[in-house]
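Quick one: structure for this chain?
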Amino acid sequence: MKRCAVTICFTLIVSGCAIGPDYKRPEIKAPAAFRGQTEAPGAKSLADLAWWGLYRDPVLEQLIKTALEHNYDVKIAVARIEEFRAAAGIAGLGSLPLISASGGASKSRLTTVGPTPLPAGINPLSPTYNAEVDVSYEVDLWRRIANLNAAARADLLATEFARDIARTTVITNVAIAYFTLRTLDRQLAVTQRTVATREKFLELTRAQFNRGVVSGLDVNRAEANLAFARGNVPDLQRQIAQAENALQILLGENPASILRAPPTEARFFSLPPDVPVGLPAALLERRPDLRQAETNLIGANARLKSVKASLFPTISLTGELGSKSAALTDLFTGPAKTWMFGLGLLQPIIDPNRNVYQVDIYSAREKQVMLQYQQSVAQAFREVSDALAARQGYAEFMRAQEDQVAALRAASERVLKRYKIGFSSYFEVIDADTVLFTAELQLAQAYQNTLISLVQLYKALGGGWQTARPAAERPEKAVSSGGIADDHARPSR
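Got it. Here's what it folds into:
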């Protein structure tokens, strides 16, 4: 009895050495605050907002909803989950006994003219019937099978995080494509308004030329400025068509137009109030790519422990229960019963270094995955800091650009009035109009950059996991402060 207890204790100690230490998250050098973070770090974060709460625009909301349902990348990610769920199911069966049943019937004939003749009265025909159940089971003493099962479950969880990454990426890409499209709409409206202004100015210049007030050169310059503005119209229309096509592909649709309201002088999307970005350490739980990277590390750790277990003997139990008889009527009678039970022990001897090298291989792989995880975390901190810098820089630039456009618009109106009464020269009018046109186009671009920086900050913080808007949060009519929401337009399908 004492010897048995010592043997059991020794076996448990050796098995503990075989599987290795349990997984522990690597040390992460998380900063106390993000670079560029102006407020004191706290638990609240912009990423806590659902995408329908951040992008409060009915058209954009419908576009994102459609994309999450029909985007091909999301569908592929979901299909991969089904694949790895089946693989995890197969791995889970490894801890169960393998049971198989077999049965058969055969008939043979012995020679009657051989060197040893059959005795008289013996039938040379010999039928045989058999039925049996075979059972085999590997005793997972070193947890080799359990760790393979854990690795398969980690792979399944990693694919689920990959689906969340695909969803977040789709939300980001749709928002960026939508803001790009609306910016092109704004630039087209500015260009068309400039064309109309220059057409009127050309009429005024021709009238003054007919009266002898200005020269033909002034008329030519007015015609050239008008032609330049008109030339921008088809180019912007081309860009709009291509942006619509790209957006439809994100929706899982064929190229087509996107239904939306025309741009207005008001901002088509209200910027949300400043929301804290949260604690840097919270990124480890918020961002699906970091969760996926850590899950891959957990799987690598489980595979390493499984390979280490292969260094130790494999213990298997086998059994067979059945019956065998010469007559079918006797097959399931007591005398026909057969059984067998065995205990097997397999220890590699001829090539023991092969498994040792396997341990080295999987140790190196675990180290690689750990370094990739640490690299992903550092990259995530950088993405948040970059997005904070972009948001602050673009917002300040946009405000300065708004002030510039307001001043240039007032100057252009004033110089045109002075030109009509002869107090300003033709070149002053042309210069004011050209500078205003360029500034208005730049303002639209600055507004786009500001919105995109918000999108990138939201993604960098790990926002966008929510996939369905709760019914309690769905108003009958969407409300937005921008002009586009007033039409309640919906994208074409």
